[in-house]
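In response to reviewer comment 3 from the previous cycle, which asked for concrete evidence that the modeling workflow produces usable outputs, we include below a single protein chain processed end to end. The sequence was submitted unchanged, and the resulting structure tokens are shown without manual editing.
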Amino acid sequence: MIELKNVSKHFASNKVLIDVSMTIPSGEPVAIIGPNGAGKTTLFSLISGFISPSSGEVLFDGKAIPHSEQFGKLAVLPQDAQLDPRFTIEKQLAFFSKLQGFTKSEGIAEVSRVLGLVGLLEHKTKKPQELSHGMRKRACIAQSLIGNPSFVLLDEATAGLDPVHAKEVRELIASLSKDITFILSSHDLAELERLCQRVFVFEAGSLKQYSGDGDTTSQAYLTLRLKQDLDNLDNVIAELNGLRNLKVTQSREYLIEYDASVTDFDIQLLQCLHQQSIAYQQIYNGKTLENQLFD
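The workflow returned the following structure tokens.
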């Protein structure tokens, strides 16, 4: 578990983080979001032990970071992580294994293990320039998995990737999440929505935490995206049993609030849309992450 207790970080007169307290238990992936300059990179540096807080405590399993027991249990992959074009993937990862204390034979086995996890074992003798952009990113993620850490910090894991390669990286993270707690920093809310149930939002160095819908059990939400704008959707669904409120969140997107005790509300909605010949693009159970954070 990672804990921050009343952590502040100043660089001269610049206050980057202000009295931040948060807990990240092991388990499901966690998202860190916020605009540029919100303090995300500084937070990663504090958790990694690269820098120390100006005040407060950063703890890993109850002990102040950095400490010897943290070694090998927490890994960081910066956004601009690069592979050396002069060496094969296998040779580079073997070098990083050696830095972590593996013997030569142990390092060879560990390199095979992590490359197998990211689906690159058959490409181990290739140099970075022989791999696609997405494969190079997966190789970098393999580097962060050396030593079987319990927490891995990924900064903008899919930045610069095309949709196909970004999907590959998301699927990789999801597949590894049963054994590793990923802490993800990204500007892509749609990406985080696919991966994370818990989100920490930073604004001007301060923390606003969101976890789950946070709504009472008496209300529930559906997000409806239509294929075209409809001015009178409120009138169309007005008679649905359990309807509480309808809100337009953006063009062709509607947030529908209903009574959670009405368990067939989604079926009612689908039947109503069908009867009125209204074409929809997507129905999302709950609020989108964007609406959860900024509604």
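The chain is about 30% helix and 30% strand. We consider this sufficient to address the reviewer's concern, and the full set will be provided in the supplementary archive.
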